[in-house]
Amino acid sequence: MRKIITLLIAIVSFASCEKENTNIERTESEFVTNLGMKFVFLNNDNEDLIDNSNIQTYPISFQDKYSEISNDDITNYNNEIYFNGNANTLFYDSEIGRNIWETIVYGFDNVAFPENRTV
């Protein structure tokens, strides 16, 4: 019985404590990050889906809307292909014998700050 009374007193005292100000300002900011990951695209027969000579097979990442890749958007440098504003990189990895795609990721941070803190 004594334990129950002690528990009830503890619950009442925790519930009656003054709560801290919970007004939080939310800011949403855009970010771009490099994943540091390499992607390989293969079909069911374990063949590359990316063909270096066909830009229609290039995978892309995009922020607002999908746009077609044009030949004017492609830069070849050091056996790598940069496209889509250099957000995407395509290269052949001779060690695994496959085309590798690297990209950046677009997104939004939803950061919460206490009302009295400035950014």
Biggest sheet strand line-up: 1-5-4-3-2
Instruction: Give the percentage of residues in beta strands.
Output: 25-35%
> How many DSSP H or I helices?
1
Could you say which structural class the secondary elements and strand pairing correspond to? Answer: mainly beta
Biggest pleated sheet: 5 strands, antiparallel
Parts with pLDDT < 50 across at least 5 consecutive residues? none
Q: What share of residues is helical?
A: 10-25%
Radius of gyration computed on alpha carbons? 26 Å
Got a strand count? 5
Anisotropy-based shape: elongated
Mean pLDDT: 76
End-to-end CA span:
52 Å
Order of helices and strands: HEEEEE
Keywords, separated by commas or semicolons:
single chain, 119 residues, 12% helix, 34% strand
